[in-house]
Structures are given as structure tokens and as C-alpha cells.
Amino acid sequence: MFSRSNQTTAGAGAARANITRALSDDSEASGPNYETMKTFDNFIGGKWVPPVSGEYFANQNPADARDTIGRFPMSGSADVDLAVESAKRGFEEWRHTPAPARGDVLRRVGDICRRARKTSPI
Q1: How would DSSP label each residue in the chain?
Q2: Within this chain, do residues 111 and 53 fall inside the same structural domain, yes or no?
Q3: Which of 28, 38, 87, 93 allows an S-S link to 70, with CB 3.0 to 4.6 Å?
């Protein structure tokens, strides 16, 4: 892996190359197993989709660098463009929804968040 200072001094392309190498490097037998690690994707247009680049980065627990939380998408401008277009389409539908119906949706979201908070181990 590389340190935070390497990330900030190297260009974005170099950092991306280092991360990609880190995810595909099998030389560390004691390191995390990237094949079985939970992989997260971008949520765009109501679906979980991989990043356009296909690249991911490993996110370590800051309190214990031996604990890798998962693989997260190395999203770029193409992913942002897809998300913005999806949001524009969603806004067109949402803005034509009557206010009482929007209120019902927001109340349901609040209920879900409250239930999740009560059942969350944190």
C-alpha cells in the first residue's frame, strides 16, 4: 500500500495506478483477500452499478489498518455525468408528484430511518 503523503504528492493518475496495483497484487500473503472482500458500487438510476472505469480502491479502518472495510468504486467524471443525468430524470418525475404524495414518501423514509437507527448495533 502507499501512505497518505504519497497520495497527495503523486498525481491522480499515479495514485490511481498505485491503488489498482494494490488491489491486484497477490504478493502479500497476509494482506486482505480482495476476491472475497465486500465490493460496493455506485447507486445510479435506482440500481447498483460498477464504476465506468471498473477500478476500485480498498478502504482500511483508520483505527486498525489490518482491517479492510471493503472495495469502493474509483468513480470519475463519467460516473458523475451518469448520476447527474439520472437525477435530472428523477427530478422531472418528482416535481410533477403532488405535494401530499411527496409528504407521504418523506414520512415513510423517516420511519425507515428511525427503525434502522433502533436496530443498528452502533
Answers
A1: ---HHHHHHS-HHHHHHHHHHHHH----TTS--TTTS-B--EEETTEEE--TT--EEEEEETTEEEEEEEEEE---HHHHHHHHHHHHHHHHHHHTS-HHHHHHHHHHHHHHHHHHHHH---
A2: no
A3: 38
